[in-house]
Amino acid sequence: MKNEQSSVPEVGNRVRLRAPIIGLLFAMGICLLTPYNNIYLQATPLGGGHFPLAPFFLFLGLSGLTILLQVIRGGATLLSGGELLTIWIQAVIGSGIAYTGFARTFLINITTPLHFAGTESRWQENIDPLIPAGLLPTDKGAIELLYNGIPGAREDSWLSMLGQIPWQAWLQPLFSWSVYILLAYLVMIFLLNIIVRQWIFYERMNFPLLKVPRMIAHAVSEGEGLAFFTNRFLLMGVLLPVILHLLNGLNLYYPSVPQMPTLLLAGPYFGQTGIFSGFHKLKLYFFPAFIGFAFLTSRQISFSFWFFFLGGGLFYGLLSLLGYSLPASELGVTFGPTITRPEEMQMLGAYGVFFFSLVWLARYHLLDVTRRSILWQKADSPGPEWLDVRISFWGAIIGTIALVCWYVYYGTAPLVAVLLVFSFFMITIVATRVICQGGLAYFTLTAAPMDGLIAFLGPKFFTGINALIAGISQKVLFVDLRESLMPSLLQAARVQRSNWPRGLLFSSILLTIVLSLFTSCLAMLTLCYRFGIRELQQDWAATTSIAVYENISRLMNTPPETGSWVFGFTMMGAVVMLLLVVCYQRLHWWPLHPLGYLTVYSSAMRILWLSFFLGWLCNALCMRYGGVRLFKKLQFFFIGLIIGDFSMGGIWAIIGLFTRMSYQVLPN
């Protein structure tokens, strides 16, 4: 892809041992607190998305404390800018595991077959006999207590709860899935370590989500933190979300306080037939922070996001106008989190073509890595990698083989296992590029990796145990990418500098991943056995998990054939993406970025499209009439929107911990 220079100054201060320790403690604290806050209190999510609230709120607090000490003690620094970034990125990694990235659905996912099986579902006939020993919990008493809660547990302390959990029922399933999850995370790390030089050094990829933390860290390092936070444009930007969320938050507790709506329903203004029928459910969300991210994103990308979203709505209307009303039954069996119509299967072809375009752009780098790994030759110059690429090359191969062996051990056919693992990481790599380069703090997939294999190879490719293991494992890590480890790892690689201790940073990231995984499981088990899943209002997690097993059951019985329209739309998506990639690379005046097409049917864009439109419009007007000089001043206003939004989110989250009801600032 085209080079995108970043105007953010680098942070080069040293990183001492204190930073990884603090970051690890913050990550574990977020993992412990997130299930209680997000699920039980239903408060503003502490860990959610790819720019989570709790890590940035803590980052702001530590930055403010460091600046205060600099002022009081005449320049003495508690934490350097590099240390602040290290703490923040570790907390981001932990928060990505604490909720939707893993813990939110994991326990429900692996207990659904036994708890929700009924006589009408036929799961006991075609699913239960195929469950491999040790993969899922089988103790019905332990599972019932998980959903109903241990009697009298609410009066006990949280620590005493640990002794009441029936650990014997969980040890083997947790061990089996820990092996799978840690292998998948290791492969992600190795793959990222291979491609990070290509994306950061050669393609000069921009990272909009990193701009605010890096600017704050640089200001702290240069002793300019006070000047940064007292910038008049920044203060004006902070003021807007503070007033908005102060009024709306108070309205929750005191209804007499006036409220400022952040959601408008535009759908009623469009008919359900005609060219604009695709907009009859259109909603207008107002999130100041996401407007700020959109302003900091490349204009071409932010324009493409809202342009393709509106274009996708018009495409629905055009098909309706031409008399094509395609039933949802054409989809056959699908595992996509938001896919509802055959037209949305364009994304399967688009993702595939975009992935291979990334491989094509990186072909010389990948060939060089392969040659050096086979001949065991060291790289000529240091890069952004944590590890020697030779270790990553062989580690990725061995880790992938180990994952395939895990699938085969539990009964999956070798060919199915190989294609499944490939599709999982292909989709994850593309989603990582979309999230990090597009500045998408909130992102969802349209179609799942298994949907692509079913579309091309037919539903009979997944039969029996193949469908069962594939569906469960996909739900664990690779279908809901609102929180995912790989984008956080890429951002971690981008913020580190050559003079930082890479061995220490890499070790701290590995330790953060392992302990966050352990802490999240512990927190969720304790919460569920204390209150019971039934009372925790886990409707979304239960519904999506049940849907996975319903689809598995359909694949095992008489799976409906995928309609011809699905294959046609898949090929259409591939052709459109190929044209976009070629035009983007060859025509300097081309206004559309391929990333925009990848999000056209994402549920995230239904929430964020207006924010990207407003951010793009402000950016375009700023550059048109004020140029770079005005942009450097005005960017502080939009940074203020981000800081104000997240600061108010953190404040209301803290209030919610004590009042047991909380005003939600950010999308869940």
Descriptive report:
The protein is mostly helical. A two-stranded antiparallel ribbon has the order 1-2. Helix 11 packs parallel to helix 26 and helix 17 packs across helix 18.
Break the fold down into its secondary structure elements and pairings.
Elements: H1 18-40, H2 53-72, H3 81-98, H4 103-115, H5 123-126, H6 140-148, H7 158-162, H8 171-202, H9 208-221, H10 225-229, H11 232-253, E1 263-265, E2 283-285, H12 288-296, H13 299-321, H14 346-361, H15 363-375, H16 389-409, H17 414-438, H18 449-457, H19 465-477, H20 485-495, H21 502-531, H22 539-556, H23 564-586, H24 594-598, H25 603-625, H26 627-659
Antiparallel strand pairs: 1-2
What key phrases describe this protein's structure?
65% helix; two-stranded antiparallel sheet; single chain; 2 strands; mainly alpha; 668 residues
Number of helices: 26
Report the end-to-end length measured between terminal Cα atoms.
32 Å
Work out the strand percent: under 5%
Major beta sheet summary:
2 strands, antiparallel
Order of helices and strands: HHHHHHHHHHHEEHHHHHHHHHHHHHHH
Helical content (DSSP H or I, runs of 4+): 55-70%
